[in-house]
Amino acid sequence: MSGPEGSIVQFDNVGLRYGTDREVLSDVSFTLFPGSFYFLTGTSGAGKTSLLKLLYLAQRPSRGMIRMFGSDVITLPRKALPAFRRRIGTVFQDFRLVSHLSAFDNVALPLRVSRVPESEIRKPVADMLEWVGLSNRADARPATLSGGEQQRVAIARAVIARPEILVADEPTGNVDADMALKLLRLFEALNRLGTTVVVATHDVHLLKKVPESLIMRLDKGRLSDPTGALRYPPRRQAQFGEARV
Amino acid sequence: MALDRVIRRNQPRFGAERSGLLQQARLGGPMPWVIAIMVALTVMAAAAGLALSNLARNASAEIAGGVTVQIVEAAPAERDRQAEVAVALLRNRDDVADVRRVPDSELEQLIEPWLGEEAGPADEAIPIPALIDARLHGPLTGARLQALRAALTASAPSAKVDAQAGWLAPVFHAISSLQWLAVGLIVLLGATSAAAVWLAARSALGSNRDTIEIVHLLGGTDRQIARIFQRSIAVDAFVGGIVGLLLGLIAILFLGRQFAALGSGMVAGGGLRIPDWIAIGAIPVAGIAIAMFTARITVLAALRRIL
Known about the structure:
A: alpha/beta, six-stranded mixed beta sheet, four-stranded antiparallel beta sheet, B: alpha+beta, 2 domains, 11 helices, 4 strands, about 10% strand
């Protein structure tokens, strides 16, 4: 089954349960288009992180169909998944930095995994660290960084390889308002370069900062569509005036 | 500038898949020593097996056509007469390459440990058979032995003919058993090394679980991760292998000197040849290969369990 023309991600009746518990996601269907900016909202425990896990291929759904980059990722052989994961940048809620590597090496990790020559790694990583304001902390281990600094390293790591999809789970949760705005501008800049951005957040104020964004709302594992993000063709948040979340 | 320092510090060392990616990818700790001990024991077992093999081959070649004729006759004159007849008969046969009557002085030396200095052939209180050592062309078969026995007893009725290989058959069986024991030991030591690497690799996987999961989510492949472990164990196995080889060689040389001091002709045939030394030198290489292969399949099997 092929998705709507030009879509980058398509979820169709996706359900997810851990073990024999009740479903944490039920009948989730939506389509993401290249170059779009999505906010995923919902209360704590609504299933945002579970949905993102499916997006960054850390989990297979219990039912339904997921197509990414034109392929059915559920039936895809396991050995084909790394190539797909390299096209996705992820900011984890708990950062998941490698504790024994410096900030520099953490940011360089996706490039090294993609076998980028070492000579081509140094400058972009240095630039990226400078962009997130951590040039002077490049050799610091995660344990010596503040929560906000760790979050910025995690974001730098997620975007360094210029992914086609950026998935961010509460990416501004530990930074001040100025840094949050700066990071959002980074996401927007990436978005303008063609990256599809999905940001999970419960921060209502954040949604207003990106008026071109589309909003998906999760409620008890089910998806609602306040801005028409799930429709085809999608409608921009601006058409609704202010997002209702 | 701090970043400059970091960039200098991050000069590529082992390419994109540096083992530094994993905190404890070095299986580390006692692993090089475990491998060293295993290699040392394997070197000793292999050297013993090869030496026994050489010993058996040399001894077998030496006695393959050997025949011992005893003239068991109490009367010294008659014994001498029959011995001379037997020697003459053997010398006239085309299938006999060499004949030698063992001199009385040698016989005295042979029996001296049991009967004392005064109990030799000169003292006829205890009659000692005359001994004739003959060597045939080609190997001695049962039919040839029968024909020789018939010819000798017709002229020298007190002659008893025995194949030398027959006397030493139990020794060869024992040597063969020891060779198989050495092979078994080598196999067991290889399996034990593999098991040790398996345990260490699983432990290293456990302690690096979070990092491996992150690398996976960033698009790292199983093979990339397995290669990191492989390289780490290769370093450990190389260090352990060299140390083990040296320890094993010291033990071999020490034992070699001890056996050489025995001065026994049979033991002297058990020396190691150049191909044997090459085979012993290959043991650490085989150890490294086994360790790397074990680490690889252990890591790949464990990684297959995660998405």
